[in-house]
Amino acid sequence: LQVPCALSQPAAGSESRRFANKHSKKALKASLTLGILLGMFFVAWLPFFVTNMTQAVCGCVPAGFFDVLTWLGYCNSTMNPIIYPLFMRDFKRAMGKYLPCCRRSGEPRPSAISLSMRNSNSGPRAATSLKNVL
Predict the structure, then answer these.
(1) What is the pLDDT of residues 70-100, one digit of tens each?
(2) What is the reported pTM?
(3) Domain positions in the chain
(4) Distance separating the N- and C-terminal Cα atoms of the chain
(5) Which of 24, 55, 63, 71 is the most buried (most CB within 10 A)?
(6) Which is it for the CA torsion 28, 34, 37, 41, positive or negative?
């Protein structure tokens, strides 16, 4: 009776290692995505904020340079919809589901009614009256 128990324990340990390994890969990927997003944010907006403070103190920053740094920050905002689908499978699926340009040819197009029902949390439910509520 003890031999089967001894054989089943390594299988359970292997399963828990596989589960932990899967979650550690997801955590690593999420950390990588977050690191890239934050890194790009700092690269794009830090020069703007430093220049903004410098302008407030000495007023020696040319207007054209300030405009370039402002647009660099704006470009960072346009990079987010590009970075998210590259690293996040769920985001890519959602984009493909709702944007016609990203949809696969075999996927059905969601109807406006189903979208509004899903977004308003007013799916099918039992009829309620004022008496039932009170």
Answers:
(1) 999 999 888 887 888 887 777 778 877 877 7
(2) 0.53
(3) 17-98
(4) 62
(5) 55
(6) negative
